[in-house]
Design goal:
By secondary structure, the protein is α/β, with parallel strands linked by helices. Helix content is 29%, strand content 34%. The protein has a five-stranded parallel sheet. Strands 12-11-10-14-13 form a five-stranded antiparallel sheet, covered by helices on one side. It is elongated, with a radius of gyration of 30 Å.
């Protein structure tokens, strides 16, 4: 998200710039619009530096360069003005571009690209971007001990997980019930949420093994699973019904 400040005293110019910025498709948050040298000095002196500042050069109470004499501006600046006589002076400060009014959409986009090229995303934003690109890996199998033997069960063969008498079990597609050393909360984070849905506090079901969905009291939904080998009815709790309907209608 690009956090910007606009220093401009003409309302039509402000609206035009906001419209052009919106049309670029960039993720932009306008932190503040400042209309004078005095207002700009006060705000910039008492707030964190924005990522980028758009500055008109001639303001109602003076020339924008007076701001630099009072405030140490570290943010890059894009100047917007109807005059080209200040271009040289503009590039002696933090300017990355100098756009003449009326501002052209193509030139604005190029100016923003120049900003992106010269001022890459902050470290925190880079880290978040990197994290978002890391593929999420879910468990594909569980190793289960039955007596002296071990068995590797594919998650795709598991019809549901459930709690009974404070222990966790799962039912396979061939109706076998086996215990597992994880809580339902732990399992929810380990398996693909695209395949499993938390029906209530006791059941986590594989939606691909739902055989039937039946209206139940209190606007709840009763599930009929493929194996039918369950110690109690599998009911979608009232607070989960909407989420369940959305999942099954996606």
């Amino acid at each position: 998200m690009m956090r910007i400040v606009i220093i401009e005293d003409e309302k039509p110019a402000i609206e035009k710039l906001k419209h052009l910025l919106s049309a670029t498709g960039e993720e932009i948050a306008i932190l503040k619009i400042l209309g004078s040298v005095e207002e700009s000095v006060n705000w910039l002196s008492n707030n964190a530096s924005p990522d980028l500042i758009f500055m008109d050069i001639q303001l109602s109470d003076g020339i924008v360069f007076e701001i630099f004499e009072s405030v140490n501006i570290t943010s890059p600046v894009i100047f917007t003005t109807a005059f080209d006589t200040y271009a040289i002076k503009a590039f002696k400060v933090n300017s990355i571009d100098y756009l003449l009014k009326p501002i052209e959409a193509e030139l604005l986009s190029k100016a923003l690209k120049k900003y992106r090229d010269h001022y890459p995303a902050p470290l925190a934003e880079k880290v978040n971007q990197m994290i978002s690109q890391i593929p999420i890996t879910y468990k594909s199998r569980f190793l289960i001990k039955t007596g002296e033997h071990f068995r590797s069960v594919s998650v795709t063969d598991i019809e549901s997980f459930f709690i009974q008498e404070r222990s966790t079990f799962f039912i396979t597609k061939d109706s076998k019930t086996l215990d597992i050393d994880y809580s339902l909360d732990q399992l929810e984070k380990m398996i693909n949420p695209g395949d499993f849905f938390r029906a209530n506090r006791n059941y986590l079901v594989n939606i691909h093994y739902i055989k039937d969905m039946i209206g139940y009291s209190g606007n709840r939904i009763k599930l009929k699973m493929q194996s039918g080998n369950y110690p109690e009815p599998v009911i979608i709790s009232r607070d989960r019904v909407n989420a369940f309907k959305q999942r099954m209608d996606s």
